[in-house]
Amino acid sequence: MADAMLRTENLGISFGGLKAVQDLNLEIRRQQLYGLVGPNGAGKTTVFNMLTGVYQPTFGTFYLDGEELKGKSQEKINHRGIARTFQNIRLFNNMSVIRNVMVGLHNQPEFRCTPAESFLRLPRHFSTEYAMRDRAKEILRIFDLEEERNNLACNLPYGKQRKLEIARALATNPKLLLLDEPAAGMNPYETEDLMRIVRGLRDDYGLTILLIEHDMKFVSGLCDEITVLNFGTVLTQGPTDRALSDPEVIKAYIGE
Amino acid sequence: MAKRKSDFKLKNYVCYILVAVMFLYALVLQMMGKLPKSTSNLFVQIAYSIILAVSLNLVVGFLGELSLGHAGFMCVGAYLGSYIAIALTSHIESKLLVLLISMLCGGLAAAFFGFVVGLPALRLKGDYLAIVTLAFGEIVRTVCKNLPFFGGAMGLSTVAIKYDTRSSTSLYIVAFITVFVVLFLIQNLVRSKHGRAITAIRDNEIAARAMGINVTFYKLFVFVFAAFCAGVAGVIFGHFNTPVLYSKFSFNYSIEILVMVVLGGMASINGSIIAAALITYVNIALQAKLTGDLAALKYLIYALILIVLVIFNNAPRLAPIKEALSPKNLFGRLKKRRPGDVSDDAGEWANIPTKIRMDEILSTDVRPGNEFVPDKEKKAPVKGGPNDG
Fold first, then answer.
1. pLDDT tens-digit profile of B214-253?
2. Burial of B225 (0-12, 13-18, 19+ CB in 10 A)
3. Contact A103 B341 (CB under 8 A)
4. Partner of A8 for a Cys bridge, out of A26, A95, B154, B276, CB 3.0 to 4.6 A?
5. Residue among B199, B342, B365 minimizing CB distance to A45
6. pLDDT at position B332, please?
7. Nearest CB neighbour to B200, from listed A49, A92, A119
């Protein structure tokens, strides 16, 4: 399908003979909210690691917007338009909130400024710094973090750290956003708030979002389609309601 | 663009003020004719120590990589810069011009070595990088010792270019101006988007990569730039000291520079300046006092300073004391500060994380240089080949 934002073909990886993921065929349409679920150790995060270039897939390949990205480095993949968050939060802890987002803006073409220009404080250094700051504030506003912008990232409460991670990923101006357990450790109110934000990212910014989540309310409330993984293989794929009521899936999660 | 409120912050300029005070003090002394040779020497030494400490701080404090080869880069600068200066001095009249050219050449040579060493070494993590840089320092020193045109074990005699600090004052003036230039460059770098990328790499390399930061480029860039600064410091050293002797650039000297960085505080440029001046002064004072067998005590004192500082910075029991002694609390009453207000400045990130963190050890997620290496795809056996059933 030409409309696919992300397409994986028999994507798989093995570590020393252990097949962590095999034969994964995903097809995510533009502006789709897609869920990747499965019990612990099913290989969900490994899929993310392959899609972002942390691991090089052993088998198969994947395409973003028609462009093959297999074998590219993490930086290159990010430049092509895949951004991610991490399951265990990886913020730049000793930097302020706004600086975290500004790091995400680093490679945007409109904020180009060579090291030489920064060394000598030429006019472009100042103009990019101001423009980056403004853009970072705009992004923080989406996540309701503008008030916190001068706090250190490590001093934020957990839920806000999660949101900051998404904000930072958004700053890299991705086409496809990978969210690794965005609602983990959030209370019900925060989860609801996050659902609203994620939906907003899709509707207002035209992002395609692939997310891993254990909170089934979150998944069924957001995702149009899901893929269920178990022991690295696809258990079922399809529209959320149908996939979640599949007896195989229920068996994998809670046993017989 | 809307009018900005002034971004002027005094503390961004403290480092210049510190150096300016030292510089002016020396100048005033000299104008009053009260600058003894030893004091003038001290100022030159302080100047190149500051360059070394601040540039090493860029690598250790801001980039978060431990380099123990800074004296090696200085050695390259000192030998090559002085050699070039000696060659030029018969052709060029102006002594100052010779000094400037040799500073540039020495710096570039050191930067080249920084590039050659950094390219493979920066793929290594933590201790391993330290070991490689340490080895580099020792190799450079030994090579210089055995090169005949560098004077062999006698050292490179720089009598021809040496500044007599009494009759000619230009060396410490040039040295301090170089300090200003280096500080200007480093301060600007750190407070730019590139500085932000560098500290992001220090804070979380995986996340920095995922944000599309070119980690290899920035690591190499910082490493090469720091090597350049060390080379320049080496050239100043060569013009001040004769002979340029390999034994100066030993492992101990690298550690001495590292002590300056740790004492001044990681990622604190102001701290590095003060610590460099202080240690250089103490060093010379001790050299006069501790003669003969007692000279070895000097290194004991460095080791003690390092141990005490590391304990002080890391022991949880000492945290309240540290908090009470922090400048924020000591001088906090002097200016109004909104609660929770953390200034948006690189020099403020005083609590540098160590490279090893518990959550990373315990996590099942990947780390840089990850332990799991994906298998390579095996070629599917060719159907109908000679071995095919």
1. 999 999 999 999 999 999 999 999 988 878 888 889 988 9
2. buried
3. no
4. A26
5. B365
6. 57
7. A92
Please give the pLDDT value at position B345. 43
Same domain, B314 and B280: no
What is this structure's pTM? 0.85
Express each pLDDT in B150-173 by its tens digit: 888 888 887 777 776 555 567 888
Report d(CA B367, CA B369) in Å as an integer: 6
DSSP three-state, residue A72 = coil
What is the maximum span of chain A, computed from C-alpha positions, in angstroms?
68
A63, β-bridge pairs: A7, A68
| B342 has a chain A CB within 8 A of its CB | yes
* Total of domains in chain B: 2
The complex's ipTM? 0.90
Picking from A118, A144, A167, the residue at the C-terminal end of a domain is A167
> Which residue's entry shows tokens 């159907």?
B383
Tokens found for residue B262: 């740790």
Domain of residue B66 covers 13-289
Q: Do A78 and B351 touch (CB under 8 A)?
A: no
Q: What is the pLDDT of residues A3-17, one digit of tens each?
A: 789 999 999 999 888
CB contact under 8 Å between A92 and B349, yes or no, is: no
Q: Which residues pair with A4 in a beta bridge?
A: A29
Same domain as A116, residue A181: no
| Nearest alpha-carbon partner for B77 in B280, B229, B258, B276 | B229
Residue bearing tokens 């951004």:
A83
pLDDT of residue B353: 43
Res. B328 pLDDT band, cuts 50 70 90: low
With CB atoms and an 8 Å threshold, state whether B196 touches A45. no
